[in-house]
Every structure is written in C-alpha cells, then in structure tokens.
Amino acid sequence: MKITSVEPFILHVPLNTESISDSTHTITHWGVVGAKIVADNGLAGYGFTGTHAHLPSDRLVTSCISESYALLLLGEDARDGDRLWLKLARYPAVQWVGRAGVTQIALAAIDIALWDLRAKAAGLPLWKLLGGATIERLEAYNTDIGWLSIPKDKLVEGSRRAIEHDGFRRLKLKVGHADPAIDIERIEAVRKAVGASVSIAIDGNGKWDLPTCRRFCARAEPLDIFWFEEPMWYDDIASHAALARSTSIPIALGEQLYTAEAFSAFIGAGAVQYVQPDVTRLAGITEYIQVAHTAHSHRLPVAAHVGDMGQVHVHLSYWHPATSMLEYIPWIKDCFVEPIRVDGGHYVRPEMPGAGCTLTESAVSSYARPC
Length: 371
Ligand SMILES: [Mg+2]
Description:
alpha/beta; 4-stranded antiparallel sheet; 15 strands; 5-stranded parallel sheet; TIM Barrel; binds magnesium ion
C-alpha cells in the first residue's frame, strides 16, 4: 500500500452557535487543518488537527505537512505505522525546530490519516483494528451546556434540559471568572437544579493561579465536583501537584500537553487523576496509545479531550480499557461521512471502516480555505 500523494487542506467550519467562550478563548469557527493521504490501491485516509480557524497559523501547519513531511512519505508503505511515525517524529531537521507545537500537530494529522487509511484497508472501524471494544456503551458528558459565555439562567435551563430531556447523567461547566465567587454561584445554581445524583465536573482552561485555586476549591468541595480540569497554566507540574495534595477534588488535565513525556511527568508527580490526552495535540494515534497505556499502568482513568477530534476519540474510547466516558461538544459534526451520534447520553459506536475522519464533499467545498 504505497503512498502516492499527501494533500494538505484547511477548513473553517462555523460553529452551531454564534460563538463560544471559556476563560481563555472565544471562537466563532473551528479550524479543520490536515492531510488527505492517498495510496496506490485507491484508498484515501483523512487526518486533521483542530485550530481556532486563524488562517496564518493554519498555514504553518499545512506548510509543515506539504513541505517537510510529505516528501518523507511518498513511496512509503502506509502499513508501516511505527516506522513511519519514527521517521517523521525523529527527522533531524524538523525535530530541531519543534518537538511540540506546529510540527507536532502537523504530525498528528498525518498519523491519524495513516491510521484511517490502514483501518479502511482492513475493512474495519479503528476501534476494531486496535483490539475491539472493551465497553458496551461509551457514556457522553455534556460540556456544550456549560460555556462561560452562557448567562446563569440559561446555564441552569440548558443543564436541566440535558439531564431531563436528552438523557445525560454528566455535565461539565466552564469556570474562570476574575471573581471566582461568580463561578461558585453558577455551580450552586446548577447543582440545585439537577440534584445530587448528577455528576458535575468543572474546567478552568488554565486561567487561575495556585492561591486562587486553593481558595476556590475550599468553597467548591461541598458541591461534589467530579473533577477540576486545567485549573492552572498547562505546563505547571509543581502547582498542579500542590493543588492535588491540598484538595479532595480530583485534578484532570492533558488536552494541552504535546508529548508522552509531559504526561509521564505529570503522572509521576501525582499532579493528575483523570488523564485527558488529545490525539491531535499529541503526535497522533500512535502517541495517544502510549499515553493511554501509561495512565492505565498507573490505574488512572483516561477521558480523552473531545474538542479537536471527536470522532477519533470515540473510536479510541470504545477501545481503551481505561476509558468509560467522553466529552460531548457537537460543533463540527456536519463535516463527516459518518457523523458522530449521541443517543440517551451515550455515544453510538461507529461502524464504518476507518477512523471516522472522512470529510464530506459538501463540507470541503463549503468551508475550504487556501493553504
Ligand atoms: Mg477542557
């Protein structure tokens, strides 16, 4: 299965709503930036990373794909997964300018496309190719009701609807106001509306510092918080370890970590209890597998970040034995030949061959931007 072409692409997909905000970001579009890899058997694999749809930044990624990695792949056997991953990840000239950031997410897109291609060639969905589903049903937790940009009354209304009407049992609320008392009030209002049996996690998106987090956690602990996600700056291992020692609320993080080594450092320091790898920020599925296995060997649960590549995370979550739930944010579901579906608070297991990344012609023609 020789690789005959590697074509980069950029899609800017409008959100289902006007805009969304967490403590750090506000976006109106989502960037689907990646590569289509074609083999001599006629099959095409799709892989991409997620961006904030900022064209100059997106072009850094596609330039890395087309001008650095593509030439290393042409003529290679697409079935040689680990060998090709190493060839690209350790290519001296590229490694020299980035073991994280642009070169890493460009490699993520390529690695995912190669897995998509191999799964299609095998005639199997990715979860089956990896070893089969280890759970009957993958629970979805709803983050889409909890954006920071949603006023408190709408937050309560949406939370109630998600539980009573849509069948979710788990919610995640964004936090990170300049005055954390506002966040406490919002969580209290939702807890009161949905009752004690609903799981409520929170996500700070790296906004606060250690003293703020400690004061906040002391007030939030009685509200039965399932986890506190990204409470502080993404790379700060020491502060997360200190917070983990001082609060009973479990710490979750990982969506902003670029390497398996970064995960190992957080796990080794006791700074994380829920491990949240993102296949598009790590160097693809190949490195995600390393991280998930590492977490599992420490008996830590894995809950993949869904925002950037939901459909691949559905496959990985059905497969990996450390995972029982996955975030739900339905912002780019209209792009795929096999759309992501949630029914009664659970993900419908994908069944088409591949990793679920094949884009529809209409998505490509509607949302494409020049690379
Ligand atoms: Mg998050």
